Amino acid sequence: MTSLNTVKYDNIVHMGVTERKTRQREALRQQILAAARDLFAKHGYESVSMRKIAELIEYSPTSIYLHFRDKEELLHEICTETFQLLSNKLAKVGQSEGEPSQLLRRGLRVYVDFGISHPNHYRATFMMPHHHPREAGSCTKLDFGTGGQAFQFLMEAVRRVIESGPTRSTDVMAVSQALWVTVHGITSLLISKEREFPWIDKSRLIDITIDAAVTGLLR
């Protein structure tokens, strides 16, 4: 007859094995995502295959397919992760106190700093042509999950500045898009041309660009 202590021990062992397998599975999943980000950023979406990703992490392609059905799903997951990380940082700015235009500038600076700190995330999501993304997986659709949340932060910050008025423009969408074009431009340049141009101090350049854009568009 099995004792109660034996049953408890068996349950603990089973839970330990299950948790270890779950951690190992998640660790491999993160390895796959990191490898895909690196390859997408360096070689572009079309030049990367599931086999190349498997070779980089020294696993069989079959192991990759246990986690992701194809590279479109991988790209979708990378975009989702990028938008989530960015949205979390922007949300902290939105919850902080400050004058509306100051918070807008702070949010734009967080965007640029995020891109520079996560160049492979940024390249794969915002700088790489996506020729065959699934409808739900397009990295550039404004209504795509957390991607929409990130842009919504920008629109809300612009709206608050306009409401605090007077401003040069009251078109929230137009101003928001123009500001995104500005910060995307400097982020992309600093990522791709960091060593190919004699930039002034990077932090100063970012602040000047953001200030010029906000002042020129709003006040």
Helix-strand blueprint:
Layout: H1 4-43, H2 50-57, H3 61-65, H4 71-94, H5 100-117, H6 119-127, H7 145-164, H8 172-192, H9 202-217
Helix pairs in contact: 1-2, 1-6, 4-5, 4-6, 4-7, 5-6, 5-7, 5-8, 5-9, 7-8, 8-9
| Number of domain modules | 2
How many strands, which pairing sense, and closed or not: the largest β-sheet?
none
Number of distinct helices: 9
Query: What's the order of the H and E elements?
Result: HHHHHHHHH
CATH superfamily of the largest domain: Tetracycline Repressor, domain 2
What portion of residues belong to β-strands?
Answer: under 5%
Helix vs. strand class:
mainly alpha
Principal-axes shape call:
elongated
- Helical content (DSSP H or I, runs of 4+): over 70%
CATH architecture of the largest domain: Orthogonal Bundle
Rg on CA atoms, Å: 22 Å
* CATH topology term of the largest domain: Tetracycline Repressor, domain 2
Overall pLDDT level = 87
Write down the CATH class of the largest domain.
Answer: Mainly Alpha
**β-strand number:** 0
Distance between the termini: 82 Å
Q: Segments where pLDDT lies below 50 for 5+ residues?
A: none
Q: How does this structure look, described?
A:
With 219 residues, the chain is an all-alpha fold. The protein folds into two domains: 1-68, Orthogonal Bundle (Arc Repressor Mutant, subunit A); 77-219, Tetracycline Repressor, domain 2 (Orthogonal Bundle), CATH 1.10.357. The protein contains nine helices and no strands. The model has no long low-confidence stretch (mean pLDDT 87).
